[in-house]
Design a protein that fits this description.
By secondary structure, this protein is mainly α. It has a single domain, classed as ABC transporter involved in vitamin B12 uptake, BtuC, CATH 1.10.3470.10. The chain has 14 helices and no strands.
Length: about 350
């Protein structure tokens, strides 16, 4: 029995999408691995690629009692395991978290220009870090330090205030949440400026943190953010299909069994938690959550079930490469990583505006 005319292209379309998505996800995973290897190979002290791989394999297989010869020793091993590897891992975590948060924000607010700092996370983190730098310099709270914890708390407080204001003002609609986020971010930014003007001696350190930095990355930072980023990204990935339903409209989503208000609050909370964790250890790194989701969407289509996992991998690869450029372009000095992402993101943003105007 033959299929009716016209059914073959319809049936073949999902298969093509699945193959294309599999190719993009595989390519993003390979790009992340290659970027990570480049990040640990290249630096002020060049490390032999073969010896790096042998050292990593030896550490990975040590619990099984397998000894891999030819690894690094002494200074080389210390540079790899205590300096470069935690920096690369942290860059991948932060980049993936910011990218998947940006994609989720764009889906919730149905706005292709939404980014992870939309609801006051950046302003809250900036105020928290500025308060500690200005009024408690040199304070240490365990191996992590108090500045990342203050930035994390400030980011969560900023997002919480925006969500509370938006909910009290008009429910959980995207327009209300956006306006609440703008209001809270403006207030927190003004408070940060006031603190900076009262204590101008620490302006250099504050601005260095605000421009983004991974130069002091340690394994303690990875341990600090991994639970929050892992939980938040898992929630966002599980919400991918629900975001696809939400894209057709609130009324249609309700008819399909999706509660728009609850879904919107859940996704915003998870994306804001990921953003707060990333900002706490890296400072403010712009454009990752804007550029990467747009590039991924062009490759895999508009379905958030496909965009979110691809953005997670591609965002990690992008920030690892950006950090590598920040380390080597002015060696032995380092550029703030936020400067590198801005050099990439600002022209990309301008191109989005121009193409949107032409359409």
């Amino acid at each position: 029995m033959t299929a009716p005319a016209g059914t073959r292209p319809v049936a073949a379309a999902p298969a093509r999408h699945r193959r294309r998505t599999a190719v993009v996800l595989s390519g993003a995973a390979v790009a992340l691995v290659l970027a990570a290897l480049a990040g640990v190979w290249v630096g002020a002290l060049p490390l032999p690629p073969g010896a790096v791989l042998a050292t990593l394999l030896d550490r990975a297989l040590a619990p099984l009692g397998v000894d891999v010869p030819g690894g690094l020793e002494g200074t080389g091993a210390a540079v790899l395991l205590q300096l470069r590897l935690p920096r690369v891992v942290l860059a991948a975590l932060v980049g993936g978290g910011l990218a998947v948060s940006g994609a989720a924000y764009q889906g919730v607010f149905r706005n292709p220009l939404a980014d992870p700092y939309l609801l006051g996370a950046a302003a809250g983190a900036g105020l928290g870090a500025t308060l500690v730098i200005a009024y408690a310099p040199g304070t240490s709270l365990g191996p992590v330090g108090v500045v990342p914890l203050a930035a994390f708390a400030g980011a969560l407080a900023g997002v919480g205030a925006a969500l509370a204001l938006g909910t009290a003002a008009g429910g959980s609609s995207s327009a209300t949440l956006l306006l609440a986020g703008v209001a809270v971010a403006s207030f927190l930014a003004a408070a940060q400026t006031l603190v900076q003007q009262q204590d101008s001696d620490d302006l250099r350190q504050v601005y260095g943190w605000l421009l983004g930095q991974l130069g002091r990355a340690r394994w303690t930072d990875v341990v600090l953010v991994l639970p929050y980023l892992g939980a938040a990204c898992l929630v966002l990935l599980l919400c991918g299909r629900a975001l696809d339903v939400l894209a057709v409209g609130d009324d249609e989503a309700r008819s399909l069994g999706v509660h728009p208000g609850r879904l919107r609050l859940l996704v915003v909370a998870a994306a804001s938690l990921a953003t707060a964790a990333a900002v706490a250890v890296s400072g403010l790194i712009g454009f990752v959550g804007l550029v990467v989701p747009h590039v991924v969407r062009r490759l895999v289509g508009g379905s958030y079930a496909r965009v979110l996992p691809a953005a997670l991998l591609a965002g990690g690869a992008f920030l690892v490469l950006a950090d590598l450029v920040a380390r080597v372009v002015l060696a032995p000095a380092e550029l703030p990583i936020g400067v590198v992402t801005a050099f990439v993101g600002a022209p990309f943003f301008a191109g989005l505006l121009w193409s949107g105007r032409r359409r």
